[in-house]
Structure formats: C-alpha cells, structure tokens
Design a protein that fits this description.
By secondary structure, the chain is mainly β. The chain has a domain at 2-67. The protein has one helix at residues 5-10, and strands at residues 2-3, 33-47, 50-63, 76-81, 88-94. The chain has a 3-stranded antiparallel beta sheet. The protein has a two-stranded antiparallel ribbon with strand order 4-5. Strand 4 and strand 5 form a beta hairpin. The longest helix is centred in the first third of the chain and has 6 residues, at 5-10. InterPro entries: Serpin_CS, Serpin_dom, Serpin_fam, Serpin_sf, Serpin_sf_1, Serpin_sf_2.
Amino acid sequence: SLDLKEPLKKLCVNALFSEHHADLSGMQAEGGLYVEDVHHGAALELDEKGTVASASTVAIIVSRIGTPRFSADRPFVFAIKHRPTGLLLFVGRVTDL
C-alpha cells in the first residue's frame, strides 16, 4: 500500500486536503467534505496458469458537518437513491439488531 497524500500535495493538489478550501460540492450539495487521505495498492500473482493483476485506490473523505445520528430499536428497510434520476441504487433490510 502506498500513501498518496504527500505526493499529491507535491503536485499542487492541496485544496482537496483542506477542510476550508476543498470543493466536493458535486458529491454533497451542503459542502463540508474534504479528502483526509489517499491510498493505492497493487498486487500481481504469477503461476503456471497465468498472471492476475489487481489494483485499488481509496480516498478517505470526511465531513466537517456533523453527521445526523440514527438509532434503530426495531427492524427496518432502507434504500439508497440517486437523486438526479430517482434510480434506486441499493435496497436492504436490517432484521437482527
């Protein structure tokens, strides 16, 4: 795993990591988001059957706006909806509290 925060800052990608200057309003209209850290990992597997390569990059995004508290004392159903299209991206239920 490789920490990309400092290399990105050296490339002048500074505002993204500032809680006062980052503009991630495309992700959350209320604003208040900034990137805390970025990590990249890669793996390569070689054997007699062939090669498998994989890579992933993760950005840890935090909010300086308080997160609303949700407390459930009974089973419930939830959905994640894409606001612009109204498309349901995920529907689930929690039955075991």
